[in-house]
Design goal:
The structure is a single chain. The longest helix is centred in the first third of the chain and has 17 residues. This protein has 3 helices and 4 strands, in the order H-E-H-E-E-H-E. The two termini are about 25 Å apart. The protein is α+β, with helices and mostly antiparallel strands. The chain has a 4-stranded antiparallel sheet with strand order 2-3-1-4. It comes from Candidatus Pinguicoccus supinus. InterPro entries: Ribosomal_uS10, Ribosomal_uS10_dom, Ribosomal_uS10_dom_sf.
Length: about 110
């Protein structure tokens, strides 16, 4: 009985999405959820992970007035999605998945 529980735990796909644009990551999550739903897989998520904010201070003028600076910020949005019981058709559809260019996807099996 323990072997069947271990095989269920190992049969999982974890998907981590990263993007600079909030709308792109929502669209990608919706595409992945629709694929999982169509193929009959069980999924959990999406779990919003903390937003990473990177700030950069740049001098306005290269020669004088070092106290005058512009501050720029980059935000990185992340989502976590788990597909618990993937079918072979789910894996095939995820391989064919077409995401926008601004979304980074990391799939862990």
């Amino acid at each position: 009985m323990e072997n069947s529980n271990l095989s269920k735990l190992k049969n999982k796909i974890r998907i981590i999405l990263r993007s600079y644009h909030y709308k792109n990551i929502i669209e990608a999550v919706n595409n992945i959820m629709s694929i999982a739903f169509k193929t009959g897989s069980v999924f959990k998520g999406p779990v919003p992970l903390p937003v990473i904010k990177k700030k950069f201070a740049v001098n306005r003028s290269p020669h004088s007035d070092k106290e005058s600076m512009d501050i720029f910020e980059i935000r990185i949005y992340k989502r976590l999605l788990d597909i618990i019981q993937p079918s072979p058709s789910t894996v095939d559809e995820l391989k064919k998945l077409n995401l926008s260019s601004g979304v980074d996807i990391n799939i862990i099996i």
